[in-house]
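Dear colleague,

Thank you for sharing your sequence with our group. We've completed the structure prediction you requested, and as agreed, I am returning the results in plain text so they can be pasted directly into your records. Please verify that the sequence below matches your submission; if there's any discrepancy, let me know and we will rerun it promptly.
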Amino acid sequence: MNHVDLGFAIFGTMLRRGRKTDAAVFSTLVKGLCIKKRVREAAELIDRIPQWGCSPNLVTCNTLIDGLCGSPLID
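Please find the predicted structure tokens below.
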């Protein structure tokens, strides 16, 4: 839907309500960030996934790799 910020708002609501997260949730957020060319933030999110008691899976990592491949190299 091209509304990554709304996705993070829903994610926050899920956490406040005590809902469990899984790799599918993070893969969706990573993909949204990559689509918006916010690849650095996507990589930072993957680093932070364990703090929510989850691990990135193959889909999550491949989504980031795909975003990196389409991203111009900066610093």
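Summary note from our side: Residues 4-69 form one domain.

Kind regards,
the structure core
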